[in-house]
Protein backbone atom coordinates (compact mmCIF):
# COMPACT_ATOMS: atom_id res chain seq x y z
CA UNK A 1 0.00 0.00 0.00
CA UNK A 2 1.24 3.47 -0.88
CA UNK A 3 0.99 6.28 1.67
CA UNK A 4 -1.05 8.26 -0.84
CA UNK A 5 -3.72 5.56 -0.66
CA UNK A 6 -6.37 6.19 1.97
CA UNK A 7 -7.57 2.89 3.39
CA UNK A 8 -11.23 2.16 2.76
CA UNK A 9 -13.15 -0.77 4.18
CA UNK A 10 -15.98 -2.96 2.98
CA UNK A 11 -17.05 -4.01 6.49
CA UNK A 12 -16.93 -2.67 10.03
CA UNK A 13 -15.05 -5.80 11.08
CA UNK A 14 -12.30 -5.16 8.55
CA UNK A 15 -12.00 -1.55 9.68
CA UNK A 16 -11.78 -2.62 13.34
CA UNK A 17 -8.94 -5.05 12.57
CA UNK A 18 -6.98 -2.46 10.58
CA UNK A 19 -7.47 0.32 13.13
CA UNK A 20 -6.23 -1.84 15.99
CA UNK A 21 -3.07 -2.88 14.14
CA UNK A 22 -2.43 0.66 12.85
CA UNK A 23 -2.69 2.16 16.34
CA UNK A 24 -0.31 -0.41 17.84
CA UNK A 25 2.28 -0.66 15.08
CA UNK A 26 2.35 -4.45 15.30
CA UNK A 27 -0.07 -6.84 16.96
CA UNK A 28 -0.31 -10.58 17.52
CA UNK A 29 -2.94 -12.17 15.31
CA UNK A 30 -4.70 -13.92 18.19
CA UNK A 31 -4.75 -10.70 20.22
CA UNK A 32 -6.47 -8.79 17.41
CA UNK A 33 -9.08 -11.53 17.07
CA UNK A 34 -9.80 -11.39 20.80
CA UNK A 35 -10.04 -7.60 20.92
CA UNK A 36 -12.35 -7.38 17.90
CA UNK A 37 -14.55 -10.21 19.27
CA UNK A 38 -14.84 -11.87 15.88
CA UNK A 39 -15.39 -15.54 15.31
CA UNK A 40 -12.45 -17.48 13.92
CA UNK A 41 -13.93 -17.89 10.44
CA UNK A 42 -15.07 -14.28 10.08
CA UNK A 43 -11.74 -12.99 11.39
CA UNK A 44 -9.79 -15.15 8.90
CA UNK A 45 -11.95 -13.94 6.01
CA UNK A 46 -11.56 -10.27 6.96
CA UNK A 47 -7.81 -10.59 7.52
CA UNK A 48 -7.39 -12.36 4.18
CA UNK A 49 -9.25 -9.51 2.49
CA UNK A 50 -7.02 -6.90 4.16
CA UNK A 51 -3.81 -8.69 3.23
CA UNK A 52 -5.00 -9.26 -0.34
CA UNK A 53 -5.66 -5.52 -0.71
CA UNK A 54 -2.16 -4.76 0.59
CA UNK A 55 -3.36 -3.09 3.80
CA UNK A 56 -1.82 -5.52 6.31
CA UNK A 57 1.01 -8.04 6.39
CA UNK A 58 0.89 -11.27 8.38
CA UNK A 59 4.41 -12.33 9.33
CA UNK A 60 4.04 -15.67 11.08
CA UNK A 61 1.17 -14.43 13.24
CA UNK A 62 2.45 -10.86 13.73
CA UNK A 63 0.30 -8.28 11.95
CA UNK A 64 1.56 -4.91 10.75
CA UNK A 65 0.48 -2.16 8.36
CA UNK A 66 1.88 -2.85 4.89
CA UNK A 67 3.46 0.36 3.59
CA UNK A 68 5.82 0.34 0.61
CA UNK A 69 8.53 2.83 1.60
CA UNK A 70 11.59 1.30 -0.02
CA UNK A 71 14.53 -0.99 0.61
CA UNK A 72 17.86 -1.10 2.46
CA UNK A 73 20.73 1.05 1.14
CA UNK A 74 24.31 0.35 2.24
CA UNK A 75 27.13 2.89 2.48
CA UNK A 76 30.85 2.26 2.96
CA UNK A 77 33.11 4.85 4.58
CA UNK A 78 36.62 4.83 6.02
CA UNK A 79 34.98 4.40 9.44
CA UNK A 80 32.94 1.36 8.40
CA UNK A 81 29.53 0.55 6.97
CA UNK A 82 26.11 1.95 7.76
CA UNK A 83 22.69 1.29 6.26
CA UNK A 84 19.69 3.50 5.62
CA UNK A 85 16.34 1.72 5.57
CA UNK A 86 12.66 2.13 6.45
CA UNK A 87 12.14 2.11 10.21
CA UNK A 88 10.45 -0.88 11.82
CA UNK A 89 8.48 -1.14 15.03
CA UNK A 90 11.49 -2.97 16.50
CA UNK A 91 13.46 0.31 16.08
CA UNK A 92 11.12 2.15 18.46
CA UNK A 93 13.45 2.45 21.48
CA UNK A 94 16.51 3.25 19.38
CA UNK A 95 14.61 5.85 17.39
CA UNK A 96 13.39 7.67 20.48
CA UNK A 97 16.88 7.49 22.01
CA UNK A 98 18.64 9.01 19.00
CA UNK A 99 16.09 11.83 18.69
CA UNK A 100 16.61 12.64 22.35
CA UNK A 101 20.40 12.53 21.96
CA UNK A 102 20.25 15.04 19.12
CA UNK A 103 17.72 17.36 20.76
CA UNK A 104 19.72 17.35 24.00
CA UNK A 105 22.70 18.74 22.09
CA UNK A 106 20.91 21.18 19.77
CA UNK A 107 17.53 22.83 20.27
CA UNK A 108 15.19 21.20 17.76
CA UNK A 109 11.69 21.67 19.09
CA UNK A 110 9.79 19.94 16.28
CA UNK A 111 11.93 16.81 16.70
CA UNK A 112 11.37 16.90 20.45
CA UNK A 113 7.63 16.90 19.85
CA UNK A 114 7.99 13.94 17.47
CA UNK A 115 9.75 11.94 20.20
CA UNK A 116 6.96 12.75 22.64
CA UNK A 117 4.35 11.77 20.07
CA UNK A 118 6.11 8.44 19.51
CA UNK A 119 6.16 7.75 23.24
CA UNK A 120 2.49 8.64 23.56
CA UNK A 121 1.33 6.52 20.63
CA UNK A 122 3.92 3.73 21.08
CA UNK A 123 4.11 3.10 17.35
CA UNK A 124 6.56 4.14 14.64
CA UNK A 125 4.45 4.16 11.47
CA UNK A 126 0.98 5.66 11.19
CA UNK A 127 -1.36 5.49 8.20
CA UNK A 128 -5.04 6.30 8.46
CA UNK A 129 -7.58 8.69 7.02
CA UNK A 130 -6.16 11.63 9.00
CA UNK A 131 -2.39 11.21 9.11
CA UNK A 132 0.47 9.23 7.69
CA UNK A 133 3.97 9.06 9.19
CA UNK A 134 7.11 7.51 7.71
CA UNK A 135 10.56 7.11 9.24
CA UNK A 136 13.86 6.10 7.71
CA UNK A 137 16.77 5.27 10.00
CA UNK A 138 20.53 5.03 9.67
CA UNK A 139 21.91 2.03 11.54
CA UNK A 140 25.39 0.74 12.38
CA UNK A 141 25.53 -2.93 13.35
CA UNK A 142 21.79 -2.81 14.00
CA UNK A 143 21.97 0.28 16.25
CA UNK A 144 19.99 3.35 15.20
CA UNK A 145 22.34 6.35 14.87
CA UNK A 146 20.20 8.74 12.81
CA UNK A 147 16.72 9.29 11.46
CA UNK A 148 14.65 11.21 9.00
CA UNK A 149 10.90 11.53 9.31
CA UNK A 150 8.07 12.69 7.08
CA UNK A 151 4.72 13.76 8.47
CA UNK A 152 2.18 13.41 5.68
CA UNK A 153 -1.22 15.02 6.29
CA UNK A 154 -4.14 13.28 4.61
CA UNK A 155 -6.31 16.41 4.37
CA UNK A 156 -6.80 17.10 0.63
CA UNK A 157 -5.62 20.72 0.76
CA UNK A 158 -2.35 19.69 2.48
CA UNK A 159 -1.59 16.44 0.68
CA UNK A 160 1.14 17.90 -1.56
CA UNK A 161 3.33 19.15 1.31
CA UNK A 162 5.12 17.25 4.06
CA UNK A 163 6.97 18.09 7.27
CA UNK A 164 10.47 16.65 7.63
CA UNK A 165 12.87 16.21 10.52
CA UNK A 166 16.37 14.76 10.32
CA UNK A 167 19.19 14.20 12.77
CA UNK A 168 22.34 12.15 13.40
CA UNK A 169 24.03 11.27 16.67
CA UNK A 170 27.15 13.38 17.22
CA UNK A 171 29.67 10.53 17.07
CA UNK A 172 28.42 9.47 13.62
CA UNK A 173 28.52 12.81 11.85
CA UNK A 174 30.89 13.80 9.02
CA UNK A 175 30.33 10.43 7.32
CA UNK A 176 27.57 11.57 4.97
CA UNK A 177 24.87 10.02 7.16
CA UNK A 178 22.78 13.18 7.48
CA UNK A 179 23.05 14.00 3.79
CA UNK A 180 22.06 10.50 2.73
CA UNK A 181 19.14 10.42 5.17
CA UNK A 182 17.91 13.77 3.87
CA UNK A 183 18.24 12.68 0.25
CA UNK A 184 16.42 9.42 0.98
CA UNK A 185 13.45 11.31 2.41
CA UNK A 186 13.41 13.89 -0.40
CA UNK A 187 13.66 11.21 -3.08
CA UNK A 188 10.76 9.37 -1.48
CA UNK A 189 8.65 12.53 -1.19
CA UNK A 190 9.25 13.52 -4.81
CA UNK A 191 8.53 10.01 -6.08
CA UNK A 192 5.24 10.04 -4.19
CA UNK A 193 4.02 13.30 -5.69
CA UNK A 194 4.86 15.86 -2.99
CA UNK A 195 5.76 19.32 -4.28
CA UNK A 196 7.23 20.78 -1.10
CA UNK A 197 8.87 19.61 2.12
CA UNK A 198 9.39 21.92 5.06
CA UNK A 199 11.32 21.98 8.33
CA UNK A 200 11.21 24.48 11.18
CA UNK A 201 14.00 25.12 13.68
CA UNK A 202 14.86 27.80 16.24
CA UNK A 203 17.01 30.56 14.82
CA UNK A 204 19.66 29.63 17.41
CA UNK A 205 20.22 26.22 15.77
CA UNK A 206 22.91 27.44 13.38
CA UNK A 207 24.12 23.93 12.53
CA UNK A 208 20.71 22.77 11.27
CA UNK A 209 20.05 25.95 9.29
CA UNK A 210 23.48 25.83 7.61
CA UNK A 211 23.07 22.12 6.85
CA UNK A 212 19.73 22.63 5.11
CA UNK A 213 20.71 25.81 3.27
CA UNK A 214 23.83 24.13 1.86
CA UNK A 215 21.56 21.47 0.36
CA UNK A 216 19.20 23.78 -1.46
CA UNK A 217 16.65 24.64 1.23
CA UNK A 218 15.37 28.21 1.41
CA UNK A 219 13.98 30.28 4.24
CA UNK A 220 10.29 30.97 3.64
CA UNK A 221 9.61 32.94 6.79
CA UNK A 222 10.50 33.73 10.36
CA UNK A 223 8.03 33.63 13.23
CA UNK A 224 9.07 36.12 15.85
CA UNK A 225 9.48 34.92 19.46
CA UNK A 226 7.81 31.61 18.59
CA UNK A 227 9.70 29.52 21.14
CA UNK A 228 10.46 30.05 24.80
CA UNK A 229 13.86 28.49 25.50
CA UNK A 230 14.97 28.99 29.08
CA UNK A 231 14.11 32.58 29.88
CA UNK A 232 14.38 33.80 26.31
CA UNK A 233 11.93 34.11 23.44
CA UNK A 234 13.49 32.72 20.25
CA UNK A 235 12.42 33.11 16.62
CA UNK A 236 11.49 30.12 14.48
CA UNK A 237 13.02 29.81 11.00
CA UNK A 238 10.76 28.05 8.48
CA UNK A 239 12.74 26.42 5.68
CA UNK A 240 11.41 24.61 2.62
CA UNK A 241 12.61 22.47 -0.24
CA UNK A 242 10.56 22.67 -3.43
CA UNK A 243 10.73 20.04 -6.15
Strands, helices and their partners?
Blueprint: H1 12-24, E1 26-28, H2 29-36, H3 40-52, E2 56-59, E3 62-65, E4 73-77, E5 80-86, H4 92-105, H5 109-121, E6 126-127, E7 131-140, E8 143-153, E9 161-168, H6 177-191, E10 196-202, H7 206-213, E11 218-229, E12 232-242
Parallel strand pairs: 9-10
Antiparallel strand pairs: 1-3, 2-3, 4-5, 5-7, 6-7, 7-8, 8-9, 10-12, 11-12
Helix pairs in contact: 1-2, 1-3, 4-5
Low confidence ranges:
none
Question: How many domains in all?
Answer: 2
Full CATH superfamily name of the largest domain: Gcn5-related N-acetyltransferase (GNAT)
Q: Radius of gyration, rounded?
A: 19 Å
What does this structure look like?
With 243 residues, this protein is of the alpha+beta class. Helix 1 crosses helix 3 and helix 4 packs antiparallel against helix 5. The chain is globular, with a radius of gyration of 19 Å. Strand 7 (131-140) and strand 8 (143-153) form a beta hairpin. The mean pLDDT is 91. Strands 4, 5, 6, 7, 8, 9, 10, 11 and 12 form a nine-stranded mixed beta sheet that branches. A three-stranded antiparallel beta sheet has the order 1-3-2. The longest helix has 15 residues, at 177-191. Helix content is 35%, strand content 35%. It has two domains: 12-65, Arc Repressor Mutant, subunit A (Orthogonal Bundle); 73-242, Gcn5-related N-acetyltransferase (GNAT) (Aminopeptidase, 3-Layer(aba) Sandwich). The two termini are 24 Å apart. The chain is built from seven helices and twelve strands.
Amino acid sequence: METSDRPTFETEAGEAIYRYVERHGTAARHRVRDVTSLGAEEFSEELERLTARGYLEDDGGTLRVALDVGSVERYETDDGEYVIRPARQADFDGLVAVIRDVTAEETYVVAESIAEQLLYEETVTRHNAVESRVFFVAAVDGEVVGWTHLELPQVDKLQSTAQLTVGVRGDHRRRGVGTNLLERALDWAEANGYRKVYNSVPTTNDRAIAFLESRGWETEGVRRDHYTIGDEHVDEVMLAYTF
